[in-house]
Amino acid sequence: MDKALLEATAAALVAPGKGILAADESNGTMTKRLEGVGLESSAEARRAYRANLFLTAGCESAVSGVILYDETIRQNMDDGTSIPDYLNSRGIFPGIKVDTGTQEMADFPGEVVTKGIDAEPENGWDDLRTRCKEYFEMGARFSKWRAVIKIDTVSEPSKPSSACLTNNANALANYALICQEQGLVPIIEPEVLMDGAHDANKCAEVTSEILRLTFEECRKLGVHNPGALLKPNMIISGKDSNEQSSREHVAHSTVECLTESVPHDVGGVVFLSGGQSDEEATDHLNRMNSMDVEHPWQLSYSYGRALQAAALKAWAAEGAEASQAAFAHRAKMNSLARSGDWDISLE
Q: Annotated catalytic, 313?
C-alpha cells in the first residue's frame, strides 16, 4: 500500500474550492434520466452527454475528480482521446464506481447489502482486486462503493436491522482495503436514504451507528484513514415526515453527527446530495463551511444530480453550450460553498 500516494490523492480531491462530480450512473439509471428529458439512451448518447460536460471550460477550478461508470471509463472524447486521459490532462482525477449493485439479504426482507467484491461471471464482472488493478492502469486514482441503508419505523421489526448495518459496514471496509492496496483512494459511501417518515433524530441515530460500525471494521482490517474519503448523507428528516428541519439545523446536526462518529484522521468528507434540490444541497454545504468552528476535515461535495440536473435539461432543450453553462454555474455555486461564500443572490 502506497500511503503517500493515497494521502496526496485524497488531499487533492478535497482541495479548497473543489469537489467531485458523480457521473457514475449505471446504464439503467442514465437511461431513465435521458428518457426523462425526452432523449433516447444508447452508449453513444450517454458518451456524448458526459463528454460535453467534461469539455466545460474552467470546470477544473471547481471539479477535482469525476466518478465514472465502467462503460464511461472505456469510452473516448470526440477527438478520440480516452476519457481518463482527457480528464487527467485537465488536472481532474478520474474515479470509478466499483460496486455492482445490491442484493436482498436472506431472511431480512426489504434490506440489501452491496455486492462487487467477489467475481460475478454471470454478469461479466471480475473480482474487485482484478478490476481495481485494471482501472488503475487505465488512469483511475479513486473509487466509490455505495451502501444503501433504509429506515422503516413502521414495519415489524423496524429497519435497519443490526445485520444490515453490520454486513454493509464489513463490505465497505473490505472494499476500502482492496482499493487502497491497488492505489485507489476509496470513497466510503454509507447512504441513509431520505425515503420514509422518520424524523431527523432517527436519521442521526442510524447515520451515527453505520458510521461507527464502518470505521470500526476499517480499523480492524487496517484501512489507512488519511488515504480514504467519506461520502455521507446529511442529517435530514424522511421525505414523508411531518417534522422537517430548518436548513441551519440540518447543517449543525450533520456536523455534530460526523464529528462524534467519524475518525478525525479520515482524508476528507464529500457529501452526497441524495434527494435534495440543487440549491438546498449548495446551501446546506455553505452553512456547514460558514460555522465559526474548525472542522476536523475538509467538507466538500460529491454531487450527481445536484450538479447535473440543470445541465441534462439544457442538453435536451438547447444543446451543448447551454448544458455546459448550466453545469459551470452549479459547479461555481458549490465551489463557493466550500468556503462559505455562496449566497442565494448569486443564483
A: no
